[in-house]
Design a protein that fits this description.
Number of strands of chain B: 0
Low-confidence stretches of chain A: none
Bound molecules: adenosine-5'-diphosphate, magnesium ion
CATH architecture of chain A: 3-Layer(aba) Sandwich
Helix content of chain B: over 70%
Distance between the termini of chain A: 38 Å
Low-confidence stretches of chain B: 192-196
Shape of chain B: globular
Helix content of chain A: 25-40%
Radius of gyration of chain A: 17 Å
CATH class of chain A: Alpha Beta
Number of domains of chain B: 2
Number of strands of chain A: 10
Structural class of chain B: mainly alpha
CATH superfamily of chain A: P-loop containing nucleotide triphosphate hydrolases
Radius of gyration of chain B: 23 Å
Strand content of chain A: 25-35%
Order of helices and strands of chain A: EEEHEEHEHHHHEHEHEEH
CATH topology of chain A: Rossmann fold
Number of helices of chain A: 9
Shape of chain A: globular
Largest sheet of chain A: 6 strands, mixed
Mean pLDDT of chain B: 85
Oligomer: heterodimer
Largest sheet of chain B: none
Number of domains of chain A: 1
Chain lengths: 239, 442
């Protein structure tokens, strides 16, 4: 099956000589939910940023929705992101002075494709009736669901999520994960999620473990307790 | 909870107070100019005849008038910029409310900070004012407005009076701005900081009242004699300025939808202006004043010349235009300052816009559309202030309702205002957009 996200020998060296990613290769097909785990500083966020075209790898190639990001100009990468990628971050990254509707429709109003209607995505994330509320008045869990609605409105090929449940309690976090799961199953989006939490990773189809910028494990996601064991394994070696 | 912690939190972003500090420095400079002009005119070794002539043609009052206008402007503008700076700190203020600072303690910390900013600002402004004052006195003599015996003298009370004005106005502005954040219940405070919305239940009706009062007075004065109209003009201007100042957020919210006509970027800009109408109005007030002052002075001079056919004397022209120029420049600097403060607080928002798919160019276009809304609002509000003040004077003294607006002035004021607003919004935005969004958000 044709992958919607493809990384071939991707490396990222930061200015102070830190090699955050080395020769990372990853093929993600549509509809697959991938969890990326690893110790702090193992390169998870760097991997996500390079894959999403938010950062430029210093080596290797990245293809997103059939477009080669390598050598693409910043504005072209931005448009590609707008049309084919959705983002969910730990810190929500919403415009807190605007309403829920204004936030959710932002990618569309900035010229992105209108894949779904606002009511549809708000309904999907359980926020029907919240459209006119200012985001600043919502709880953390509600804000994260607004972010997911914003990520889904363009019907993206890939949803990128960096610690989406990091600031939420287990119940609220579970709701957010179920939504990401549905984005993969129902909407056929590939989901690439960075997380610290084995219970969150257990929602995925596939687990990628990073250790010092290298993929240490890439395979089917086991149960949460096994994930925790594996995670301890790579962290112990890294420490 | 010690007050050191509060101070530290308020100081976390020292640039936040750059706006108030700049306007305080300029206010101190203006007050210094006014005081020294007074001292120079009063202290000059003049003959009785010379002095009598000066009293007769009103030039002895020039210094005092300048001083009074400076203090009035300072109260308004320093208060506004301080209000914006404190509004910017709302999140930090909310934080110390949550860790146990009482409302009174929060207000005291803010007041202390506001007072402290005024000290270096005043010390920088007074020397500037001395230079400006010397230049002004020189100009008065050079244009033959006062006899050559008048030399520049430093007023003895310059430092204490300048301090009283700057510290006083900034304390007042800060305390008023701090009422809301200091009163919020701690649990509400953090959520509220993110939204910072007010319903303007006092502000809007008061603004409407002042504008209605100013307009009514303007109509009444039009039916009276020229001298009464002349005397009442100041009152009209005062109430119109304060009124439009209070109505600032409402005016911006009314004007914002116009941006929607520009296209998709305009629609995003309109939402942004509505959401930030409160902080943007901090810039709208001084800009409106600058436009209003300049329009009033220029148009009344031009209309008088046009109707009577008599050209204004060079000296008269110099006196009016130099004064108006200084006031307008002061107000314009304050406006740009506030805009920069407002824009700088939005680095993260710009990054979020780019994250979800706006290119650098697209983001900048949105900001430029916002700038156009602010410009248009300031021009219309400034024109309204000038018209209300001006029309009774024109009608009673010159018998005309038609103001004569010189085309170069019209172009100058439109282009100038647009340039100022762009410098305050688009320039800092362009600088911030150079950083990759992911670095800002990280
Ligand atoms: N902007 C940067 N400049 C320099 N080094 C960085 C930068 N961002 C991340 N790093 C370094 O790269 C490595 C990987 O970071 P990151 O991808 O953020 O890890 P993770 O998300 O797994 O915690 C770390 O050693 C980190 O210090
Ligand atoms: Mg990370």
């Amino acid at each position: 099956m044709e992958s919607v996200l493809s990384l071939v020998s991707v490396s990222r060296r930061y200015r102070r000589g830190v090699l955050a990613l080395r020769d990372v290769s990853l093929e993600v097909p549509a509809g697959q939910f991938v969890a990326v785990m690893g110790a702090t500083g193992s390169g998870k966020s760097t991997l996500l940023h390079c894959a999403a075209g938010l950062d430029r790898p210093t080596g290797g190639r990245v293809r997103l929705a059939g477009h080669d990001l390598t050598g693409m100009r910043e504005s072209a990468r931005t448009r590609l992101r707008r049309d084919h990628a959705g983002f969910v971050f730990q810190a929500y990254n919403l415009l807190s002075e605007l309403t829920v509707r204004q936030n959710v429709t932002l990618p569309v109003r900035l010229g992105g494709p209108r894949g779904r209607t606002v009511d549809e995505v708000l309904d999907q994330v359980g926020l029907a009736g919240f459209a006119k509320r200012p985001v600043g008045e919502l709880s953390g869990g509600q804000r994260q669901r607004v972010a997911i609605a914003r990520a889904l409105i363009t019907s993206p090929s890939v949803v990128f999520a960096d610690e989406p449940t990091g600031a939420l309690d287990p119940t609220t976090g579970g709701r957010v994960l179920a939504l990401l799961r549905a984005a993969a199953d129902r909407d056929g989006a590939a989901v690439l999620m960075v997380t610290h939490d084995p219970a969150a990773a257990a929602w995925s189809d596939r687990l990628v473990l990073l250790r010092e910028g290298v993929i240490a494990y890439d395979g089917p996601a086991p149960r949460a307790d096994e994930i925790a064991d594996r995670l301890r394994g790579v962290s112990a070696v890294a420490a | 909870m010690n007050s050191g912690m509060i101070r530290q939190a308020v100081r976390r972003n020292p640039w936040a107070f750059l706006g108030p500090a700049t306007t305080q420095a300029l206010a101190a400079a203006l007050v210094t100019v006014g005081l020294c002009a007074m001292a120079s005119l009063d202290g000059a070794p003049l003959t009785v005849a010379q002095r009598a002539r000066m009293v007769e043609d009103g030039s002895t009052d020039a210094g005092l008038l300048f001083l009074i206008s400076s203090i009035y402007l300072s109260v308004l503008i320093v208060g506004v910029t301080m209000g914006t700076a404190i509004g910017d700190q709302a999140r930090d203020l909310a934080l110390f409310r949550t860790v146990g600072a009482t409302p009174a303690r929060t207000r005291r910390a803010i007041a202390l900070q506001a007072g402290l900013v005024a000290v270096p600002a005043t010390l920088a402004g007074v020397p500037l004012g001395l230079l400006g004052g010397a230049a002004w006195v020189h100009g008065l003599v050079g244009h033959g407005i006062v006899p050559a015996e008048v030399t520049f003298r430093v007023h003895g009370g310059v430092l204490p009076i300048a301090f009283a004005v700057t510290v006083g106005t900034s304390l007042l502005g800060a305390l008023i701005a701090a009422i809301r954040p200091s009163r919020l219940r701690p649990a509400m405070a953090l959520a509220e900081a993110a939204v910072a919305r007010g319903r303007g239940r006092v502000r809007t009706p008061l603004g409407l009242l002042l504008v209605a009062g100013g307009s009514t007075l303007s109509v009444v004065l039009s039916g009276l004699d020229a001298e009464t109209a002349d005397n009442g003009g100041l009152l009209v201007m005062l109430s119109m300025c304060f009124g439009t100042g209070l109505l600032g957020p409402v005016l911006l919210r009314v004007a914002a939808p116009v941006a929607r006509l520009i296209g998709p970027a305009g629609r995003v800009a309109a939402d942004n202006v509505v959401a930030r109408s409160r902080s943007l109005s901090g810039a709208l007030v001084p800009l409106t004043l600058a436009v209003g002052f300049a329009a009033f002075t220029i148009v009344i001079g031009a209309t008088t010349e046009h109707v009577t056919g008599v050209a204004m004397g060079g000296a008269d022209k110099w006196l009016t235009y130099s004064g108006t120029g200084v006031y307008s420049a002061f107000a314009a600097v304050a406006g740009v300052n506030t805009l920069i403060t407002v824009m700088r607080a939005r680095g993260r928002d710009l990054a979020v816009m780019r994250l979800v798919g706006a290119t650098q160019g697209h983001t900048l276009t949105v900001v430029i559309c916002e700038a156009l809304v602010v410009t248009a609002t300031a021009l219309v509000a400034g024109a309204a202030v000038a018209a209300a003040t001006l029309l009774p004077l024109l009608h009673t003294a010159l018998g005309t309702w038609v103001p004569w607006v010189p085309l170069p002035f019209l172009i100058g004021v439109v282009v100038g205002t647009a340039a100022l607003v762009l410098a305050g919004l688009a320039l800092p935005a362009a600088v911030m957009l150079r950083r990759p969004p992911i670095e800002v958000i990280r």
